[in-house]
Design goal:
By secondary structure, the chain is of the alpha+beta class. Helix content is 68%, strand content 10%. Helix 6 runs antiparallel to helix 7.
């Protein structure tokens, strides 16, 4: 029977825990699509795979002694850290960057293979960690802040743990020759870091999938602007602000003229391209804080808070002129379209349904008045 101590059992238990966790994650990853929020799924699969090899190698080393190991101590750690670095940098498709980072990793790998004794292995691993993990921490933290993704935040936290513990273990090993304590700190830190990366990656997937579903629920998949449901969800904030500040709220309804003829003559592919281009014009012309939504087949609506009626008509005219004067260039053909506009305005406590209905009435008047023109509540503004 093998002579083992309590710490060996702890190491083996941790190795089994990490290996099981990584194996489950690999199965889960095989079921995920490739549209992920952090880098390439292949890199994370390799990261977890090398983490498994590292933990098993460490467990075998502690159980059977230094002559029985799969890899020199620290090799799997450096390789898995290299894969994590590429993953968080999201450069899986940039071969030049990968080659550069891989080339720089030859130095620590060479050092770890030629290190003699536990002290040198600890020092090489600590120095390597202080060069690589600040980069992982910075990139992950920036992504967590920018995308408001707690998963990237957990990956940043995992890197921070390595950054904090690396100099501590090196100091203990070098100054006090406390190799066992240094190894314990290293093992605990890397285990915790690995678990945080695992949770962070899964959390990123869940957040990404949630946002994707939310985007599909609230945005028009063709044009990218809000759909009716998205408009309904976004309106309460604007309506509340309008009521409190007693500012005007303007609605512009836009309908593409003779769109059915475009669809019948050129097909759905061209008509979809026309809708996309019109939506782009509306988004480019609107201000920050305005809402653009597609509420029907070829009908759009713009919500413009805190704007006078004259300024609203000016915006509508700019949009009308840009649509009229800019042919839509497509591979199949060039399409010239126009649009009709209806404008309604209110202030204070606004009944949006009534306001939208009034704007639709103005739109129908524009349609009945020859199209390619603007009607509003007060007067007629023709092209």
């Amino acid at each position: 029977m093998l002579e083992t101590d309590f710490h060996t059992y702890i190491y083996a238990l941790h190795a089994v825990l990490i290996t099981s966790t990584a194996s489950i994650l690999l199965v889960i990853f095989s079921l995920q699509n490739r549209d992920l929020p952090v880098a390439s799924i292949r890199l994370f699969k390799l990261f977890f795979l090398f983490a498994i090899i590292s933990w098993v190698s460490l467990a075998m080393r502690d159980l059977y002694g230094p002559n029985h190991k799969f890899l020199p101590p620290g090799t799997g750690y450096i390789i898995s850290s290299f894969l994590l670095l590429i993953a968080v940098r999201q450069c899986s498709d940039n071969l030049k960057k990968i080659a550069l980072i891989a080339g720089l990793h030859i130095i620590p790998l060479y050092a770890i293979f030629h290190a003699e004794g536990a002290l040198e292995h600890i020092l090489v691993g600590s120095i390597y960690a202080l060069f690589v993990y600040p980069v992982i921490f910075y990139i992950s933290l920036q992504r967590a802040i920018k995308l408001k993704n707690i998963g990237s935040g957990l990956i940043a936290l995992s890197a921070l743990i390595i950054i904090i513990t690396a100099p501590i273990q090196a100091y203990l090993a070098y100054e006090f020759n406390s190799l066992h304590t240094a190894y314990t700190i290293a093992f605990t830190a890397t285990t915790t870091s690995f678990i945080l990366v695992s949770i962070g990656f899964l959390t990123s997937i869940l957040i990404h999938d949630h946002r994707k579903l939310l985007d599909l629920a609230l945005n028009d998949p063709l044009t990218g602007v809000l759909n009716r449901r998205g408009l309904t969800k976004a309106l309460p904030i604007i309506l509340s602000s309008t009521e409190i500040q007693r500012t005007p709220l303007n609605v512009i309804t836009v309908d593409i003229d003779y769109f059915k003829q475009v669809n019948d003559s050129y097909g759905h592919k061209v008509s979809d391209a026309v809708l996309t281009e019109i939506a782009k014009v509306l988004q480019e012309t609107s201000r920050q804080g305005d809402l653009v939504a597609r509420i029907g087949g070829e009908e759009f609506v713009l919500i413009l808070p805190s704007l006078s009626l004259d300024a609203t008509k000016d915006i509508a005219e700019r949009i009308r002129h840009k649509i009229e004067s800019t042919p839509i260039q497509l591979p199949e053909c060039s399409i010239q379209v126009t649009a009709s506009f209806g404008i309604a305005a209110a202030s204070g406590r606004v009944n949006f349904d009534a306001l939208l209905k009034e704007a639709d009435k103005m739109l129908y008047q524009a349609k009945n008045n020859g199209r390619n023109c603007i009607f509003c509540q007060e007067n007629l503004n023709t092209a």
